[in-house]
Amino acid sequence: MENSLNEDLGDIVRRAQKKDENAFQTLYTLLVDRLFMYALSHTKDRERALDITQETFIDLWSALPRFEYRTKEECIGFVFSILKRKVMRSYSRQTKETVLLKKLENEDDDTVLEHHEDHRHLLKKVDELDECHKDIITLRYWSSLSFKEIGVILGIEENTAKVTHHRALKKLEALITPTFIHGK
Predict the structure, then answer these.
(1) Full set of structural domains in the chain with CATH
(2) What is the pLDDT of residues 1-41, one digit of tens each?
(3) I want to staple 183 with a disulfide (CB 3.0 to 4.6 A). Which of 72, 112, 122, 125 is the partner?
């Protein structure tokens, strides 16, 4: 399927740029899961992530005619740049209720076994990473992007994305290991 995506994406984008709704639906189908997983990894709220994903496609529909397709990676980078702006704007619109719920969730004092069995612990640790490392982890694992695609999205070389990914994993490992040893 990846080879098919490489060959067909340019054609799909060009047809969608001409307001071909079927082509845009195909583009939506190809990208929606990746975009949703990225939004969800940043918002921790399914409804907000769905809204952000939908808003991203609405903006993409408007912006696509001005986009010049060159490579699959640049195209995915373009779409993710729209998504990232939507995610950042959603932070500023976050309600007091959501902030309070997140605060209560962070005060949760689980046992080591519960941490191990519950992915929320991992998500909390990913949130403790700096923004660059958090982006690398979420783009790689929540959105299943290649290092080349990640490089385009973040404006870095593919090899830099690989090295940064390796460093992010090391930092994440350092954050997780003390938890399981000391039970915090």
Answers:
(1) 1-94 (1.10.1740.10), 109-184 (1.10.10.10)
(2) 454 455 589 999 999 999 999 999 999 999 999 999 999 98
(3) 112
